[in-house]
Design brief:
This protein folds into two domains: 94 residues, Beta Barrel (Elongation Factor Tu (Ef-tu), domain 3), CATH 2.40.30; 136 residues, Nucleotide-binding domain of ferredoxin-NADP reductase (FNR) module (Rossmann fold). The relative contact order is 0.16. Strands 4-3-6-1-2-5 form a six-stranded antiparallel β-sheet. It has a six-stranded parallel β-sheet with strand order 10-9-8-7-11-12, sandwiched between helices. It has six helices and twelve strands.
């Protein structure tokens, strides 16, 4: 049996949108059942000349959507990413039939505050969180008893990708707080919002939102140095390890082992 038929779906790109020369999103059509939870990843593959290249990527879309969406960054020296960057609507991507990962929203702990901190494409699982709860809010299945607080960092404002969508959810609901920040404001002089790294803004917004070690679950997604810095800050304010989830996005020159999402 063909491995693509046994373990993978042959999915096709239905849409692509480029946010910057090295940042883009794609949506793929899945021909069969693909059940996942917000925050999980899908393993994508591209068949090369001598072997298949594959790696897991966080899913942007909500389980309520018919297509699966991904947010990519072209990383120099990456193995799979340059192959994905060449693909356009109509091209084929292999998608494993079973999702993976446990970076999901913990609504069973009794803690109603969820602090989401991301950099770059690390915002992908948080968009899935927001889309899912927004749909359930509209359908009266979610009453707003959990609040998402998102600090999202990027070098420039045009790298946010989902900025307008997240602003809209924040405007329309009482349970979603969104603060984007840029780290290179001298190259983005028209940006009117926060400036600086998310780790530098963490204490300010944790105080503003009344987030403490006893009422909050934290989720860290993005650059590994950011993840480590934020973990140290959260430990200092009393957030126990069992109430913290992390997902570091490694670049090829920072780690020799295969790590998501590159």
């Amino acid at each position: 049996m063909n491995i693509a038929d046994d373990e993978f779906y042959r999915t096709r790109i239905s849409r692509r949108e480029d946010f910057a020369p090295d940042l883009w999103m794609v949506r793929v059509q899945v021909p069969g059942e693909f059940k996942f939870l917000p925050g999980q990843r899908a393993t994508l593959g591209v068949q090369g000349l001598n072997r298949r290249h594959e790696r897991p990527y966080s899913i942007v879309s909500s389980p309520y959507e018919r297509e699966i969406e991904f947010f990519f960054e072209l990383v120099p020296g990456g193995e799979l990413m340059p192959l994905l960057h060449k693909l356009h609507p109509g091209d084929e991507i292999l998608t494993r039939k079973i999702p993976e990962g446990h970076f999901t929203l913990n609504t069973a702990s009794g803690r109603q505050n969820h602090l989401l901190i991301s950099t770059g494409t690390g915002v992908a699982p948080f968009v899935s969180f927001a889309r899912t709860l927004y749909r359930e809010w509209k359908d009266l299945k979610f009453r707003g008893q959990h609040t998402l607080h998102l600090l999202n960092g990027a070098s420039h404002s045009w790298e946010f990708g989902y900025h307008q969508e997240l602003l809209r959810v924040a405007r329309e609901t009482p349970w979603f707080k969104y603060v984007p920040t840029v780290t290179r404001p001298w190259e983005d002089t028209q940006w009117p919002g926060e400036k600086g790294r998310v780790d530098d803004l963490l204490r300010k917004y944790a105080d503003r939102w009344n987030l403490t070690g006893s009422n909050t679950t934290a989720y860290l997604s993005g650059h590994p140095r950011m993840v480590e810095n934020v973990k140290a800050i959260l430990k200092h304010v009393g957030l126990a390890k069992e109430h913290l989830r992390e997902q570091a996005y490694w670049a090829p020159d920072e780690h020799s082992a295969a790590q998501p999402p590159f």
